[in-house]
Each structure stands twice: as C-alpha cells, then as structure tokens.
Amino acid sequence: MPIWKSPATLEQITERSRNTLMEHLGIEYLEIGDDYLKARMPVDERTRQTAGILHGGASAALAETLGSIAAGLCVDRERQRIVGLEINANHIRPVTEGWVTGIAKPIHVGKTTQIWEIRIHDERDKLVCISRLTVANIAKT
C-alpha cells in the first residue's frame, strides 16, 4: 500500500526540478514505488572532485534530493511543507565514472518529523554512500 499523501509522477518531479541544482547535477528520477523513490546521477565533470572521484557533496545532494522529494510526497502539500533538519552521509567507496543510483526509503514518517535512509550504489551495485535525512513537517503560512 503506497505511503504517499500527495502522489506525483516522475514527469512532475522532473518538471519541478528544472533550473535547480538537481538539473545542473544531471539527476534523473527513475522510479516511484509504494514506499521508495529512486534516481540516478552521473559521475562526470559536474559531480567529481579534484582527485577525480565522486564528490561527497554531490552524493549528499543526491541523498537530500531523494529524501526531501519523498518526504514532500508524504504530506498534504496544500497544508504542509517539509524543511531539512539534518543530513548525515557516510562515504564507503570511491567512484570515478558512470552513474550512481540512490534509493530513499522511510525509517519514520510522523506528524511533525520524518527520517529517511538513502543508499547510493554504483553500476556494479556496490554501496558508495549511505545517508540519513531528517526533515520537519511544518504548516504552510
């Protein structure tokens, strides 16, 4: 059974991401499941650091993007919005090229807060980064 209170299509999410950091980093939304959101990001000149490997900040940006969008789908967007409280990212292994894919799944979806786990894998399905995002659900004013 889906957990989404404000469901959206991949096309709608992509359209909302136009002219943002997500578009600049080349993030592509792949799949919305009953309780997860999946996207991928290229490892290229936009997302590598000077040593030639995926920048940890790019991994954190992918994680926060996935967790924030998923969290937004779990509230009534007419009445509430979400804001980030904390993000944690543990970088497991380097990636020099190709794509990384992230999947956000909920740990806790409450009335006032949500916690999301985001796992990022390389094209060989090796864990690259694991992240946890905490957001607050706040009333729109």
Please describe the structure with a list of short key phrases separated by commas or semicolons:
single chain; 141 residues; Thiol Ester Dehydrase, Chain A; 6-stranded antiparallel beta sheet; 41% strand; Hotdog fold thioesterase
Report on the structure:
With 141 residues, the chain is an alpha+beta fold. It has one domain (10-139): Roll (Thiol Ester Dehydrase, Chain A), CATH 3.10.129. It is built from 3 helices and 6 strands; from the N terminus they run ααββαββββ. It has helices at residues 10-16, 21-25, 56-73, and strands spanning 28-32, 37-43, 80-91, 98-109, 113-121, 127-139. The protein has a 6-stranded antiparallel β-sheet with strand order 1-2-4-5-6-3. A hairpin with a 4-residue loop joins β1 and β2 (37-43). The longest helix is centred in the middle third of the chain and has 18 residues, at 56-73. InterPro entries: HotDog_dom_sf (IPR029069), PAAI_dom (IPR003736), Thioestr_dom (IPR006683). Residues 52-129 form the Thioesterase domain.
